[in-house]
Amino acid sequence: MTAALAAALALIPAAPLVSRVPVQAQPAGRAGGDLGAVPLRWRVGGGNLVTHLAGAESRQLYTALTGIGARLGRMDSYGWRDLARRPTPQDFEAAMREAHRNGIVPIILLEYEGSYQFLDPPQPIGSYDDWYAAGRVHAERFRPDGTFWREHGIRGFGVTVYTAINEPDVQATIPHAAYRDALAGFADGVHSIDPALRVVPGGFATCNSHGDAMLRGYGPAIADLLESGRLDGIDLHTYYNARWFPLTRGRTVSAQGCFDRVKAALGLRRDIAFYATEFNVAQVEDWADPRLAASLFLTGLWDHLGVVRADRRSSATVLAFPWNLADTGRIEGPAYAMAAAEDPWRPDLRAEALRLVLDLAGDMRFTALDPDRSGTYRLEGDDGMLLVWQNRPGWTDRPGPTWTVELPGWARMAELWGFDGLRRVVPVHGGMNELAGLAENETHMVRLRRTEEQREQGSRR
User: Signal sequence: where (predicted)?
Assistant: First the structure.
C-alpha cells in the first residue's frame, strides 16, 4: 500500500452510526426554492412503512434506512378513512411516533386501488369533497408543528410531502375524471392548511413498463393540476430490466428519459419536480450477477438523483427511493430484494453502493448537472467535492478509459471510486486532468477532500 493510499483510506468514513435522535431540519420538504441546495441524503429513503405493521414488522426497514444513512420513508395507510369516507388520521399515529423515534421523516401515501370499488360493500374512490377533507385533516394533524406533534411536545418535525393513489395506471379501473377530482380535492385540502406543502400523485408505472408517456390516460387527467402547481410534480417508478428496460441502451432508457417524455406528452409548460418512490435494477436473467447488478444500480441511482429541469442544468429531483431495501426476497422474490440478511439487516451489493454514495456525498449539494452531453454531475460540501461520470455508451458523449476533468485549484489527491468501493488514489492538480485506466461501461466517482487548513481558509472567505 502506498503512503498516499494509506492516507486517503484514513479519511474514508466507515458506515455511519446514525443517531436515533429525531431529525429537526427537513430541507427537502417545502415546495418552491432551489432543489440544488438540498443535501443528497434528504432526497433518499424507502418504503413501505405500512401503518398497520408499525412495530416488529417495520424494524427491518428502519434498520435499513438508518444503515444506508437516509432520512426519509414512505408511510402508507390502507385505513386512512372509514367506509363512510370520513378521514381517520388516527391510523397513522403509532407509525408516526415510531418514525420520529427512528429519526426518519415520513412521506404520506393514502392507498386506494381501483379494485376497491368492486368489494362488498363497494368502496368507491369518492368525491372532491371527500378528498379535500382527507387532505385537510391529515395535513393539519401531521405537518411540521401540526396538532399531533404539538400534543407530543415535538417541534420542527413532520410530513411535508403528501401523495395518494399508488400506480393507478396498472389496474386502470378508476375513471379518469374521478381520479382527477380526487387529486384536486386532496391537493386543495392539504394546501388549505399550508400552501408550501408538497402534494404529488402516487407513482406511475406504465412509462417504464409499457413505454406509455400518457400513463394510460391518467397523465392527461391531471395535466391542469400539474400546470397550475396544485400538484408539485410527478412520481415515476422505474425498474430497469435487461429485457424490458435496459439502461445499457443509453440514457433514452432512463428516469430522465421518461420524465422528459411524460412532460412533453402532457404538454406541460410549468417546470414540474421529479419524484421516484420506487426504482431498482432487476437482479435476474442477464443481470443476475450481483456485481453487475450493483454496477448498473449505481448508474440508475445517479440517473434518478441527477434528473434535471427544462433548462437541462438545474436539479428536478425531490425523492429517489429504491425498492426494496428491507426485503431478502422472502416477500416478493429475489429480483428487487436489497437485503442480504435480516434480523439484523445486512445490505446486498446494490444497497452497499447506495450507502457508499451517501457516505461520500450525503451532505453535499449539486452544483453542476450535465446528463445530456458529458454525463457528469458535481456536488460540493464543506469538506470537499464529488464528481460523477456515467461512463457508458449513450450516457456520455466521450465513453472510454480516460476521463478528462477540470479540478479546483485546491485539489491535490483524488480518490477514484466505483460501485464496489475505492479503486485507487492519484495525485492531481488544479485545472484539467486526465484520469486514465478507468473501467469502461461503469459509473465512476471522484472524491476530492479539503484539508483542515483549506477548510479554514474557505470559511474565512
Answer: 1-25
